[in-house]
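Bench notes, afternoon.
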Amino acid sequence: MKKILFIAFLSLCNLAFSQGKGSINGTVTDKEMSGEALPFANVFIKGTSIGGTTDMDGKYTLSVPAGNQTIVFSFVGYQTIEKQIVVKENETTTVNQELGANEGVALDEVKINATVSREKETALLLEQRKATVIKESIGAQELSKKGVSDAAAATTKVVGVSKQEGSNKVYVRGLGDRYNTTTLNGLPLPSNDPRFKNISLELFGTDMIQSIGVSKTYSANLSGDVSGANIDIVSKEHSGNSSIKIGFSSSANSQTTGKRFKTIDGANWFGAANNTKHQVTNLSTLPFTDSFTPNSTHAALNTTLSVSGSKRFNVGEESNLSIFLVGSFSNKYNYRDGISINYLRNDGSTGSRFTSAKQYNYETSKMLMGNFIYKINNNHKISYNSLFIHSNNQNIQDYFGKKPDVADSEGVFASIILQTENQNKIFVNQLLSEHKFGESIDLNLGVAYNMVNNDEPNRKKNTFVINENDNTTKFASGAARNNSRYYHNLTEDDFIANASLVKYFGTRIKDEHKAKVTLGYQLRNTIRDFRATYFDYDLSAPTNVDPNNIDAVLNQQSLDNGIFRLVTGFGFGSNALDPFTYDADKMTNAAYAMLDYQITDNFFANIGARYENIRMDVAWRTNLTNSTNDNDGPKKLRDSYILPSLNLKYNINDDNLLRLSASQTYTYPQFKEVAPFIYEGVDYQEMGNEDLQPSTNYNIDLKWEMFPTRGELISATVFGKYIEDGINRIELNAASDNFFSFNNTGNTTIYGAEVELRKQIFNFSKDKYDENIKLGLNATYMNTNQTFNVTNQFNPTNSEEPTEGAAPFLLNTDVSYNYKKDDKETIASLVFNYQGEKLYSIGSVNGLQSIYQKALPKLDFVFKRQFNNKLGLKFSAKNILNPSYEMYRDVPNKFVTKSFKRGVDVSLGLSYKL
């Protein structure tokens, strides 16, 4: 009997192992995302170990024994679908499946998993691969891995993007602030600083960012006032189960923390300036209650605190309301000591020569954001985003050395202390809606109202003459602004409206239509009001002073006794308290049309045209010029543009793509660049030019992309730009300080190449855990050349120069180790950035050579440990190399004009999810 059973068992085994096999393949799509492919969905054969996950295109292939089988499709939070199929030997069976929200699971969980996956590097690469238009994105996952703390640092991880040290300016392929645009959720953002076109990206902490998209090529749905890139910040939405997350970190700087530190009297630790407007009602009374003398303390640790929470509420069977709220506070101390020497002419003469240039900077940032999304049903959604940012920067510049108009003889030195508090309040309100009608029409609407308040309350400046020959210290006298207070107040209202209508020829599911047409309209109206007042302490003669007790001289009694008089920019007459002003109003109306067409199975085209009509008026009034009476009235620019764009994509095979983009755009001068208002720093002045005109830009890109496996990318790009009548920062002749302005300097040619690699170089993963090492690298090489037009206002030292801010070589690279098992995760990353030498300003008149910024390397280390699904730790060391930041005149010996170091920052933080 046992022999019979044994023989029967062997026969069954032989039958099983000799059974033929067939194949199953297909595509899994996402019902919640209008039929888009669903990557990383689970597909398996029930009752077996046969299975896998879908690729980035939602596709799968399984080898399965022939016969009756049950195939199962699942995705966390989505429906689990089982299908009975018959697999035939040596044949392929195609089974496509659409997955949607699981009715048995809270919609909370559904949206969570869909959203989280789209913050991941792999999901953003999938979007990049599918798009016809060239776009690169960096998501929350990658930001965390690289230790990025804000949007400005995030953009510099994208190939071809760099940031100017000590400034909020971002350069894309050598093109700076005026050539770029910034949006939040696709709607334009105002600037927080009157000197710049774009908002400072440093204000956007990564705790409110889902992803950042950088579009270095143009399509008709974007503003035409761009040639570098459109940078779009996508704000975080509700993700995960309802939760509250608390994060705290503290950091120290190697040359600041614990050291002696000066602060502005009248400012505060929290960074809230309440009295932003001066209280002077007549020039015979001093209403100021704060001291000219800075306070002395020790620099404390830097801190960051953030709290975020999210929840989804079900409203009926199809509707839900999701809420994401986040708030944060951060502060930072920074001290640096260097030199600042204004110029060296060809004849050997020099301007100000400060051999000690100390700077004490304290900054705070407060942010509140709410993201509310009401999903009416699968076809209609409304979202409201509200963002409030309050930043405050307190900066003391303490300079010592020579200054020709103050102290330039043997044994006599100048000391200048400039104390500047700058406060920004930005309130962004966005209402967006998405509507799907039938299977082939989409309507997207958006409106926004943004408000900006930029205040510089009570900037204080003192200039001393220190005579070591007779051991005296006196106030410098005889020139405006030597000892002064300054107030400015800027308010800006920004109105935006967008509408787009999409018609699919077929259904909106990607594989079921070959063409779609998009028609859109965009309006933007920006109104700015700027007021500024100087109060000069006009001393009748050089007066002895103790620099540690300035108020012993500059007080009400000295004013009454005639030691000094209070004078404004308009003097001391009846209109003395009138402010310097400029008022600006810019209206842009735009309409566009785009055709997306699938020419063949592998060839796609995006063809667009955009019409823009711009009206910009700028009026000003200073002690030097009044637009009402001079220069034929206020500056009025009236322009219309028709801007064509072409984007092509060709799929060479499943993993290789070829893209081509060509477009025409323009660059408009900014309000501040055309208003002839002089802004004064401690060692420079800057003034607008009312004769500025717009530039015209021509752009072309050719890009190859390869996606070897999930999460990997290899790409190479060649690009070119031609700019007619480019706008540049130029240097004018001045007695001692650098004096900058702006001019249409001539035509510019830019061409270059970019390469990018994202590659998993080691994979140690096992069944129970994932462990790998990844390499990221991108590099840019470019050649830029400006050919100058000589005019009465612009007489350059050289006939040609590179583009301002364009580093010919950029390199970003990182190596990261990742270990993940269940809720535990460890990430360690080494991140390196290198920016080559670049032009800072164009030299002109009297032998002033151009100023260059030397090459700058930067090395960071980031370590993160997630102990479980609640507790996490983060450590970082940034600017480890601590290079010297230097600027120099382009003379044979490369005369250094500015030099300092920023120190090494070390940070430790904890996060806890309730």
